[in-house]
Amino acid sequence: TGEDIIFFWVARMMMFGMHFMRDETGAGRVPFHDVYIHGLVRDAKGQKYSKSKGNVVDPLDLIDKVGADALRFTLASLAVQGRDIKLAESRIEGYRNFATKLWNASRYVEMNECVAEPTFAPELNQETVNRWIVDRVANVTNEVAAAIEGYKFNEAAAALYQFVWHEYCDWYVEFSKPILQDGSAEAQAETRATLIWVLRRILHLLHPFMPHVTEELWERLGPDDARMLIVDDWPVVYEGLLDADAAAEIDWAIRLISDIRAVRAEINVPPKVELPLFHKDASETTKAWIDKHRSVICRLARLDEIGITDKFHPGAVQFVVGEATYGMPLADIIDLDQERARLKKEIDKLGDEIARLEKKLANENFVAKASPEVVEEQKEKRAEAETARGKLAEALDRIAAG
User: Fold this and answer.
1) Computed from CA positions of residues 249, 252, 256, 258, in that sequence, does the dihedral angle turn out positive or negative?
2) Tens of pLDDT along 344-358?
3) Which of 62, 181, 210, 314 has its CA 20 to 30 A from that of 152?
4) Buried b (16+ CB within 10 A) or exposed e, 92-131
5) Is there a contact between 131 and 243 (Cβ–Cβ < 8 Å)?
């Protein structure tokens, strides 16, 4: 319940419950022991909903537009204890896209003829990427269960969103494609079984937050004799699912690909251009990982080769992952002087914007007269500008280092 009706509603229920409900000794019986107090739901500007202001929203209209599951997941993800909820339609649309992402992942599983096997033992997986995703889903299962039990619904929703969208849909699906296309028969069978086992575990964990789409997909993906998801047992983590070695290896590959993509985006390298990547000071373990995952790294990071060097050429943009230093030569791809000038111009522009916002927020008259929502909006703009300036400064430092 919201904090504004604790006395008018919660206290009344307790008092009337203890008055009318009695135990065997005649003493009043407490009707409930836990009260979850959530923030008030406000509009996108932080104002309370009011008919006189005309900012009220009919939940049924939102459900017709974006779906009940998207609205439900939005409210859960924003339910930070001690903080009111700013309900913007754009946020709900974002979680509608999340439901679509889940649906598309299910289509990928179906297209690859993945069938739920009751006897499948994920702890016996041999492929590193399959062991990694099983380790991740085991950790997420523990995180979500602990968050729900602690009434931290936003933390449970955030953990699920990160795992489903980024780790399962973005990374695991991409890592599974080469195996399903060119892997051995054993590796393909293991990957198909893992794909659907993890997806069904995801449906379990998401069910309290998105009951409609998860129940629909559960029926589509499960065996005909499976119980409905709403009455099935909550998943448990058992011995053998956690795998620190597989987690370290695949997390390294993801970090390397992500850093290459970030560098390309920061320095405006055209998406279709394939670049060479060189590394130095890599350990034997890292070299082995590079050889093992070379094809998927090249495909996902848009590289044409990965080589070893003792010294980077001038014009190579450098970055570090783990103990190794990596460099991509860009002198023949982009005009480095022009790119330095562009970055400096953008940094100066953001600096002026930050100075303007700081001056505004330092004005006592503005802070006193403006509504708290407006002041908070200006602070958010300043934080966004500072973050953007920091990223551009990193890009400029990389070019300078090259």
Assistant:
1) positive
2) 888 888 899 999 998
3) 62
4) bebbbebbebbeebbebbeebebebeeebebeebebbbbb
5) yes
